[in-house]
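Shipment paperwork, digital attachment
Item: protein structure file
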Amino acid sequence: MNYHLPVLLRETLDQLSVTPGNIYIDATLGHGGHTIEILKQGGIVYGFDQDPKNLEIATNRIKESNLNSNFHPIHSNFNQLKKIVNQKIGQKIDGLIADLGLSSSQQTDQNRGFSFNDNSSLDMRLDPLSQNLTAENIINTYSFDQLYEIFTKFGQELYSKPLIIQIIKERQKSPIKTGERLANIVREFYFNRHIRTKIDPSTKIFLSLRIAVNQENTNLQKLLKQSLDIVKPNGTVCIITFHSGEDRIVKQFIKDESSKNSIIANKPIKPSFSEIKENSLSRSSLLRSYKII
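Attachment content:
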């Protein structure tokens, strides 16, 4: 299997200063790339993932690497961190990492709805077992005003109004049930108006739907707030973001808490040119970290 490449791996490990026997939480386990390196350095890791497929992939990979003795997989959204730390660990932890990007398999797999080329689904739920709302529900049933709020607030889509009019026309013909059809509707809109973009025109619409379905911004705010209670003094929190919306949340949190002398912020770190060349998915990533006082 081609595992997802962890971004800013060396930089994250440098910030965490992993010490053998110390306890770390990987709040977004994915395929386990960051966790494996922490385990190799002797750390104890509690790996959270809301996506059961990711959790299975990472757990099997870690077992195959003979690193599972210090690894504890947890199927949960990271908005439950404090509760689970109290229940399962019983003490504050030494470090926390959250890589907020999708894993490569989530981005490309059919029947998940995250992909522009998915001809089977428009789902976008990280955990279909515990979530009800899907992107298909939103795109086919939400009003103009509701879609406008999602597309502008989460995606900063400049052409939200005419795009929504086009989407509503299309869904009146027949329900929009796949990522491929939605992407083509957006692409056709841009093409007919001769609007050129550096990235796929569908990107912002898909991003905004994913955020809405999984309540990503709300859960990120909960994660940041809970980090103050679950990480030991001198422990470090590393957050890797991939778009301006989530980075703005992290940046504002760090600014607010720094002013209260709750944390000490480190300088943000971008991926190197060589990393971007090796892994194009890292190009928009940004690592912000802070030490708990």
